[in-house]
Each structure stands twice: as structure tokens, then as C-alpha cells.
Amino acid sequence: MKSTFTHYLISALLFAVPNYAALQVDFSSTESIKQGAQTLASTLFQYYTGNKAGGIPGILPQPYYWWEAGAMFGGLIDYQYLTGDNQFNDIITQALLFQVGANQDYKPANQTSSEGNDDQGFWGMAVMSAAENKFPNPPSNQPQWLALAQAVFNDLAHNWDNNTCGGGLRWQIYSFNNGYTYKNTIANLCLFNIGARLGRYTGNSTYLDWASRAFTWLDQIGLIDGNWHVYDGSDSTINCTQINHIEWTYNQGAAIHGCAVMWNATGDALWQTRLEGLLGATKSVFFPNGIMKEVACEDNGKCDTDQMSFKAYLSRWLGHTTKIAPFTAHDITPLLAASSKAAVGTCTGGNDGTACGLMWNATFDGNVGLGQQLAVMEAVQSSLQPLVAGPVSQSTGGDSIGDPGAGGGSPKSTLALHTITTGDKAGAGLLTTLILGITFGGAWWMGS
Length: 448
Prior knowledge:
The chain has about 450 residues and is mainly α. The protein has helices at about 5-15, 30-45, 65-85, 90-100, 115-130, 145-160, 185-200, 205-220, 250-265, 270-285, 310-325, 330-345, 370-380, 410-415, 420-425; strands at about 180-185, 235, 440, 445.
């Protein structure tokens, strides 16, 4: 989807005129970090029209797709948790509840023409964060955060496709959509990430079994290689015998966070090995000169609207990993600290100098948008992770109400509920871009 002229004109007027009075954040001061995050969040909301007259709650204007709204609200749930600022809570709750759809599983009727498994997954991860962070619960007559996350999980698990590639989720949910034959990594990492977190939160080891199944499939197909690089996807028409080797920050981040949760939930050293391997690869690929970078598209100027937001999710998931697997903090914290300081230095756009650019290893590049703003906000607020207790579970104060059979999937074929035992713990092991899986001489091509 292309941006409208009106959108670009508004962006130019609101954000693209550099003020040269960059957003100031003193990273030695908790209050300064919180104030900086608040300023970034306020600027972020200038892109959102869902709470305004004529707007649809939970929907972003063009050129932003539906999934990115879910991703944004996931970041704002973390913002409230990390800063204690409640001013956006009602807007967040309204959006999350308005988009649940008839089966209360984030498959609203107005999205069926284009919704992918990864799109649904980002909304599921947002409400999972709401449960873990004890974000204020909805009214009792509305769907609850945990039940919504379980509904998304049930749908994703129900969509698992054993007919090709030995398993895995397809990119698209519906066969009439372009990209249905593509099995993209992020969709499978959404299942992995949500399953791991539900297993930890609820004590139901079947969620952990599904998470392990998703990770094992990615590993066996080669979408996670022996050096812990995470690739974009493969195609069912060739039985996933070739891999699209593009690497994105959000794939690496979702894998890292999921492995951290699995380690925390099971105590299995295998997950620590995987986590440390993924961290090493992430540092070598995505932190040249110590600053986070979307290496596949920043230098060549080809990042699309979606990809401009991806650094937000790596920042988010690295920050959470330091809490759920504390042994990672000595590696992660310096990377996030250097990146967040560099990122803030790009926030000189707009009349008030709070609109941020895309590239963090330079001064303001004039490339502004919701994704760029979200990415800097996530990086800055990650500095507050040491001040919070970390995600709760049902055994440590979590109070969100669940429904294991929620959603439009087939829960009977998905879940056999039982509580994690000592034995279980010892033995438990988007529209990114239009990639259609066509090969020329064995090389993948990628359309724009």
C-alpha cells in the first residue's frame, strides 16, 4: 500500500522541518528518561486518528497497516508499565477492545481481505503484554487480556500446516491472498513467542510444547541456521527447500525473547544455549559500531513503511529479555544504552524538535514516520527496565482472566490442559514485503 499525497504533506508540515533543538534526555536521570519517553509517546500519538472524530479505534491512517497498530499499542502498554504514566490508558484499552472481532481473537471482519498470521500475532503479543504487565483490566463484560492472547494462540496453532514443509505457519491466513504459499518466519515466531509466554504465565506446559515445536521447525527448515542467524522465510510450493536469507531485527528479537521465556519457564540449559547464540548473532549483524541498524534496507534507502518500525521490536524484546533472563543484561544493556542515546540524537524534526529519523548512526535524516518514532520510544524506555519487577504470572500476582478455549480456532485439537510439573520443567525442551517465493537460478527475489 502506498502513502497518499495528503499523508506526506501532513508529515512534512508537522515533522520534517528540522528544529535543530534535539530532544534532550539525560540517561543518568530516571526522571529525564521518563520525560523523554513521554515526549516521544505524545509525538507518536500525532499519527493516530482512531480516537478522533470520524476515526476507527485501533486503526491507523494510510500508509500504515493494521498489524502496526497492534505493534504500537504493545509498545504503549510497555510505556505505561515502565514510566507509570497512565494518560494514554483509556485510548489503548479502547483500541485493543474495538479490534477483537466476532470471535474475540483479533480477526475483525474488516481485515479478512489482507490479514496474515503474523498480523494477528502482533495483536496477540500486545494483549499478552497487558496480562504480564498488569495493565488495567477491561470491564468484566468485555474480553479479558489473557483470554484474548489465548484466542490468538488457539487460532495460530489451529493454522499449523503439516501438509507442506513438515509443518509451520503460512504467512497469510486465507488462501485467496497473495503470499499464502509463503511460510514466513515472523508468523511462526509469533506462535513461538505467545506460546512460551502463555506457558510461563498459566503453568500449562502444552503451550510450552507448542512453542518448542515452532522453534524446532524453524531450526530444522534452516530459517534459524547453525550460526543463529534468523532468516525471513521459505515457500511451500518448493517444500521449503530454499531459504530467503534476508535478516530483519524483529525476527531476531522475537526469537531471543521467546528463548529467554522458555529458559525462565523450564530451566532447561538448551534454551540458554539458544538464547546466547542468538544474542551473539544479533550483536554481530545488527549492531555495527555498537548502534542498532536495519542492515537489509537502511543504507540502500529501501526500507518500506513496515520495516521502518522493526527496530522498535528488537529494542522491546531485548529489554524484556534482561528481566526474564537476567544473565543477558551485561551483554544487552550496553547495546541498548548506546543505541538509545544515538537514536535520541536524531529527534530534531518538526517545529518542536521531537520527530525522529530512521538512521541512528547519523544526525536527523529527514525520514520521519510512526515506525521511526515508535522505534526511538522503545529504545529510550528500555533504559527503565532495571526499575521494574518484570512480567508477572498467575502464581506471582497476575490477575487477568483466561479462557483456554477462546477464539475461532479448534482448541480441542490444540490444547490438552495440564499444570507444569517438576518433570515438565526438566524435560521441556506481517506484511514484511511481498516475497512470493519465485526463484531464478536458485536465487530468491524480493518485490517492492
